[in-house]
Amino acid sequence: MPIPLLQLVQVAIVTGISSHLIFKRAEPRVLPALGMVCALQTVAFGYIYNDTHEFLHASIASFAVISALLFGLFTSIAIYRLSPWHPLARYRGPTLAKLSKWYMGYWIAKGNRHLKLQELHRTYGRWIRIGPNELSVDDPAAIRPIYSQMFRSLSYQGAPQAADALITTVNKDEHALRLVAWTKAFSIERLKHYRTSAQARTAQLLELLAKKKETVSLSHWISLWAIDVMGDMSFSGGFETLAAGKDAEGWMEVLHMGVLFVGVLGQVPWMRDLIALAPSPGPILTFQQFAGKKVEETSRKTGGNRNDILSIIQNDTEGKVELTRLQAHADASFIVLAGSDTVSEAMTALMRYIIDDAKVQQRLRSELNSAFDGPLEDMDASTLLKLPYLDACVQEALRLVPPVAAGPPRWNKDIPTQVLDHVIPASTTIAPPNYAIFRDPRNFFDPEKFLPERWLGGITPHNVDAFVPFCFGPGLFCARLLTANLIRAFSVSFPNDFNVKIFDESYKEHNLWVHDELLVNLEAL
Ligand code: HEM
Q: Transmembrane region positions (predicted)?
């Protein structure tokens, strides 16, 4: 006696609901899950066809059964996520965010996650739920406990890639082993070597800018300078975008696509296996292939005799990690990503604020002129790193426009974690929202204002625990070097028709910043 369709559908709904209990504990990867759905559809089709011998009827009925099963599963998931039994039920936040990670994926794609998080914290308070299993906390006191106890979530592996770079390594032990060589690559001794190449690129940019009589896009030139500097430091050059006047190979375009891609897909890392099946490899893979080609090209030119970050991390044995060729290419692309865009964004923001305030520009120039009187190559690095007003301007630019605006997310896997007076349930992702914290009046006086003086003391509130932009030594040295030289060489101003407000409003955050060009007039001093 065949089971009537209505009964089959009811059984499917109940099965869907029950399967949630299993998937809650052991979330399947997307491909096996899809395979399971196809297999079930085939079984349902076979069962119904065997009974009716009608192809169309069996197709529609089996489709209805599978839809009922998925309906049961998704309804159960949705109810659970909104229910008081969910481990994060006590945290307030938008209903859509509690239901799905696509909520934050949408704001990342739109480029407004930084503003959305700021708004959500103002509405819901310090601890908020921004995903089914994700929290955002804007309490500066929580930053240290979070980063000292938790490690990276799978969101770092959102996009298909040929191999893990340091930054996408989510296994803590493997990461620690790989980090040994990186630490060596940033030793004091090595930093001196990178400074020389940064100085050469800075001199090249100054010479180029000195020839420009018309309005220039400073953000464009800073970006080319940063690519060339990072290319030199990481794998002995080969970019020469400054000489070409453009990023002819399209590194920045692929990088920005890649970061947006990772940003959105990082919210739903289970999609990665599906994306990997697409005919086009996707921007991250393309970026790694780009970097790989560049590494091979440079190695051929230098006969493998290089003295750069990549050669150090490839040849280090102390970390007991021997990088594969693909891992080396992945790390090379990471250096370009970690170094060039962060530094060029920090520089662009810094220049935007210095140019906007003639008094700041003048005070900075006076400090620089009293510290240095010789040419660029005589600029002493230790003096440059100790100039209080320059340092204050750099910190202030990083505060207002942090190159990484969303705090790097952390995950506690299967161990509940104590953060202040909260016990974070296992399997929770948590991040401090850097942009919102840096512009919070509880942390910084008049926070929307560029006020370098706050870093020199006497202005409160000034909560240094709230300021964690993360930054590696060579990056900020390069930014200081270029700023010092630009300000000493030129009087910099905005063209009459440049609207700073429109420029500020053009900022979109897709993990990295995208914005209008910073147009300036330069007058040689
Ligand atoms: C203003 C400049 C910079 C900012 C704001 C910045 C920001 C960050 C952030 C937020 C992280 C943490 C990533 C995470 O754990 O998710 C990080 C890590 C890192 N950055 Fe930077 N960065 C800057 C410049 C640089 C430069 C110039 C380099 C080197 C070429 C660099 C190399 C690294 C490395 C090696 C890591 C560690 C990655 C890991 O542990 O997997 N950064 N940076």
A: 30-49, 55-80
